[in-house]
């Protein structure tokens, strides 16, 4: 397919355009409402708690209420493996981005570059663009992310050993619980007793595992779906509201924040994309277009709130972290749509299945 045809197909794809416009418009709406004083200073934090404790767990769990086949299982396991390996690679590689900085800044910036806001910023966009399959892949990819965020990042930022409190925080996180429960149920469904029901998508009679609530208990699945559908708009409103609270002029004066933002939203996703293309072309770990796009969007996200809280809580370059978090959020709002278009153009070449 010629490049002109690929570009035309990409920019006339209503799903891509509407997903990008929805993200930008709702974030800008949150920004405008905060500047006008309609949203107060507590709005962003309150919406964040709702999304992280209710909407995203529902979204993650529901995404696994789907049939399992050889293709999705293969891609799911490949994403899990890649998600663990890539964070090990980034932990070492990102230090090279900041060799000109002193040891403390280099350590902090490396961690902030490695760990993005995949849960709060990334998953809602993936869900809006790629639906339940993308959400499922994003949830699986996040397993490696959370392992290293709550272990390596904590130890590196605090200078302490892993604590019971931090392990408890990781294991009892609602999104983590929903992801692991959903993943386990998704994997074991071929071994479980089945019940007949009507598939809500095809409207055909099917036999599914008894816990496939999308078929066997729609009265449970539907309320969870309503909660899940809130994750994207609430997250985007909260992002916009948060941006409306900070002085762009003050944050923009820090050149390091801009350099960090370029590394976080451009270089890190590009490294991932290059590796994924190599793994697919060489057939070492071929992945689908949705799987690859999910990973790139997740990696183009701004500073992770948890990583930033570590830096601020342990007084590790707190001001720099705050500025970098703000600028990288603006950078991600700009770059994620660009990455979506780039991914759509690459998809048109047929590199990924």
Helix-strand layout with pairing:
Elements: H1 3-11, H2 14-35, H3 43-63, H4 70-96, H5 103-114, H6 118-158, H7 164-171, H8 174-188, E1 194-198, E2 205-209, H9 213-216, H10 218-229, H11 231-243, H12 248-252, H13 255-281, H14 289-299, H15 305-313, H16 318-349
Antiparallel strand pairs: 1-2
Protein name: AEC family transporter
GO biological process, one term: transmembrane transport
InterPro entries: Mem_transp_PIN-like (IPR004776)
From the alpha carbons, calculate the radius of gyration and give it in angstroms.
20 Å
- Average of pLDDT: 87
Q: In the residues, how many domains can be counted?
A: 1
Helix percentage range:
over 70%
Number of strands: 2
Give the count of helical stretches: 16
Q: Which range does the strand content fall in?
A: under 5%
CATH fold call: Na+/H+ antiporter like fold
Shape verdict: globular
In order across it, which strands form the biggest sheet? 1-2
Quaternary state of the chains: single chain
The CATH architecture assignment turns out to be Up-down Bundle
Low-confidence stretches: none
Order of helices and strands: HHHHHHHHEEHHHHHHHH
Please describe the biggest sheet, giving its number of strands, its sense, and whether it closes into a barrel: 2 strands, antiparallel
